[in-house]
Amino acid sequence: MQIAAMTDHTGAEIRDLDLSRPIGDDVRQALRDAFVRHHVLAIRGQELAPAALVQAVSLFGEIFPQHNTRFALPDCPQIHYLSNQDSFPDGRRYIPGEGWHTDHSNDNRPPMATVLHAVKLPSHGGDTQFANMAAAYDALPEPMRRCIDPLLAIHVYQSSHSARQLMTLSETNKERVPNAVLHPIARTHPESGAKSIYINPIRIEGILGLDHKEALPLLDDLLAHATQERFQYRHRWQPGDLVIWDNRCLLHKANSDYDMGETRYLYRVMLKGDVPR
Ligand code: SIN
């Protein structure tokens, strides 16, 4: 197995690894270390059917049940699909993952990691961008760090302030998804100990103890700071890619800059995380 960093802060490419075969403890440990160090791993050249994908991701952790089961694969519901070929009930095209976010932060224990495996890709575009929230936190002026360190944000399924609309949850899904949860705006990574900005424009409804007039501009400023190009890694998809990223210290977004006559279809799995602190 070869591991090569993609930037000096985020992303590594992994070659010469076949996840459909049994993986020994030394390789497993090397993958987990690389995951904590590089935050995004792009494992090239995989061809995993759903059951094999479930088996492969167990190298990194336990599967997290995703919230909106309308996207679950019927024969393997731990895996959801992402596709540009779905529409909202009013006929508008639904592009999953557009706009900066971190996955399922409206859960008490949001997923540690998300895994995407490319099944069908457009001929150009459709990259996934990542922004390193630990680097962004470190680059904040000291007074701003002191300001955000004690703050708690209120996360919901769909923020009323978000321009991006999500697919609604079924009544059954609503019963198991929390109404609102509180998470720190500056969270500490449980494995590396690094502090990160933990925000999510599509899920944050407000900041505890601040009115919207104060909270929303603060969140906008943090987002503008954190998503500067210097903190980004942009993943250009290749057939056979399996990409795993760390939701605890990254924001990400999908790009819809390709011909919508072409299909972009990926399998998505999430892995269980802990309570952000
Ligand atoms: C996601 O937000 O989970 C999807 C990202 C992508 O489709 O590139």
Describe the structure.
With 277 residues, the protein is of the alpha+beta class. Helices cover 20% and strands 29% of the residues. It has six helices and 19 strands. Strands 1, 2, 3, 4, 5, 6, 9, 17 and 19 form a nine-stranded mixed beta sheet that branches. A three-stranded antiparallel beta sheet has the order 16-10-18. The chain has a three-stranded antiparallel beta sheet with strand order 12-11-15. It binds succinic acid. Succinic acid is lined by residues 82, 96-97, 103, 114, 128, 252, 254, 268.
What is the end-to-end distance?
34 Å
CATH class: Alpha Beta
At the fold tier of CATH, the topology name is Double-stranded beta-helix
> Count of DSSP helices?
6
Radius of gyration, taken over Cα atoms and rounded to an integer in Å? 18 Å
Overall structural class, as computed from helix and strand content, comes to alpha+beta
Number of domains: 1
Strand tally: 19
Q: DSSP strand (E) fraction?
A: 25-35%
Q: What coarse outline follows from CA principal-axis ratios?
A: globular
Spans of at least 5 consecutive residues with low confidence: none
Main sheet overview? 9 strands, mixed
Oligomerization status of the protein chains: single chain
| CATH-derived architecture | 4-Layer Sandwich
Which ligands does the model contain, each kind named once? succinic acid
Strand and helix order: EEHEHEEEEEEEHHEHEEEEHEEEE
Can you tell me the CATH superfamily? Clavaminate synthase-like
- Overall average pLDDT: 97
